[in-house]
Amino acid sequence: MPQQLRKAPTANLPGPFKVLQQGLLSLDGADHDRLKALVYKAFTPRTIERMRDQTQVVTDEALSAALRRGEADLIQDFALPIPLAIIGRILGVPGRDHPRFSTWTRALVSIGDRNPLFVVPTILTFMAYMRRLIKERRAVPQDDLISALVAAQENSDAMSDDEVLSMIFLLLSAGHETTVNLIGSGALALMQHPDQLERLRADPKLIKPAVEELVRFVAPVEQGTERYAARDTEWAGVHIPRGELVIGILASANRDPAQFDGPDQLDVGRTNNRHLGFGLGMHYCLGAPLARLEAQLALSALVQRAPQLKLAVPASDLTWRKSFIVRGLQRLPVTL
Length: 336
Known about the structure:
Strand order of the largest sheet: 1-5-8
Shape: globular
Number of helices: 13
Keywords: Heme, Iron, Metal-binding, Monooxygenase, Oxidoreductase
Distance between the termini: 47 Å
């Protein structure tokens, strides 16, 4: 019922942070449709697919280092570095800047685990750097996502520098964190279901349905963005007054017995899997193809190259991040 819901009014952010209010998640209606049409012209399947080889290289390097040690924290040593490295390459960050770009983005994506005030200097530095890079790409376009965002046009309309910058932040936050949680929590789920782990190991072609099943099963994003009822309405027999908060719980929907056979069972070969892990409708996750690619390559490599993969601590000792929106582990110690 998208016409019956509206986005919550966003508090005015101070000065340089106002740009963060211009992203897809903060917009509805014509403003959202305009920006999404422009972004889709840049975020093409070709853009994603050409990252396959680079994603494979980054994945193999991270896993090889862990295998040499015989142990790893699969979050910090594997799930986190892969999307961090790939997003820098997709955006077109020059190789010489990769170390500091990685430092900045690690700080940005960990903002939920620390006092946000400590991250303000990093955010300002990062914004200034990205504005310079956007300006450079307007002057001399290259074969990267920033150049594509800058060049995207729809009926003579184009994205402003603020809109491009806001899109970059969205990719780093919503897109990046979802992938980290999918890889980390997905690996844990496979270890806790050794029959499914061995099934996937025996039949590598199952990796695509396996990743879809893990999105459904582990719920890397537990709920959708909050909305408010634009008018009094009835939904599934429930009266929702105008102005009432409405939140879609994706994790619950993905365990709905009316939609899934054996909803609480992990089935890496599940075929009827219309999950809502990447959302639905106008706010369907723009980065879903990239998240799928990264998770398929990462989990496939882990399953095939680490036959001795096991948890290094009892599952009860694992700590989950303190968030009611996303679901992810702080650490995942394993032996290889």
